[in-house]
Amino acid sequence: MIALIQRVTEARVDVDDRCTGRIEAGLLALIGVQPDDGAPQVERLLQKLLGYRVFSDSEGRMNLALKDTGGGLLLVPQFTLAADTGSGLRPSFSTAAPPALGRQRFDELLALARARHPRVEAGEFGAHMRVSLVNDGPVTFWLET
After folding, report:
1. Cβ(108)–Cβ(75) under 8 Å?
2. What is the model's pTM?
3. Are strands 62-65 and 53-56 parallel, antiparallel or unpaired?
4. Pairing outcome for strands 26-32 and 72-77
5. Percentage, residues of the chain above pLDDT 70
6. 79 belongs to the catalytic site
7. Annotated catalytic, 106?
């Protein structure tokens, strides 16, 4: 699985005219699923999302994780992260999980996150979403499991 995480002061996802998820300070995580991803990758990615130290401590160093700060986690499914961009000028999506598997793994990640972290919001799988954010830093990392 792939996550592009961004430390944010606020973020939200809208589908049509409704907000499906909104957080204040925390992490926005764009989630991509690959064909071979299973339960172990879901578990490991959640560990990274909750434990990756990207928030500043009292000395200004990135030593705190989301689980330490209690900030929000906004999960947004984004199959384009798993695209093959190695050749030509058009991405290939043969390296992304098929939609049914992608939805299943994203839903598993969301359920686990909600069970382990108090503030979890989400986008909507398969929908055309508008994602708004204020990147804090900017701090952005690419995580893979």
Report:
1. no
2. 0.96
3. antiparallel
4. parallel
5. 100
6. yes
7. no
* Partners of 15 in beta bridges: 18, 129
Burial (Cβ within 10 Å: 0-12, 13-18, ≥19) of residue 16: exposed
34 an active-site residue? no
d(CA 80, CA 53): 26
Per-residue model confidence as pLDDT tens digits over 55-92: 999 999 999 999 999 999 999 999 999 999 998 999 99
Of 141, 125, 142, 121, residue with least CA distance to 24: 121
Q: Which of 6, 34, 41, 78 is catalytic?
A: 78
Residue in 55, 79, 106, 125 annotated catalytic? 79
Distance in angstroms between the alpha carbons of the first and the last residue of the chain: 5
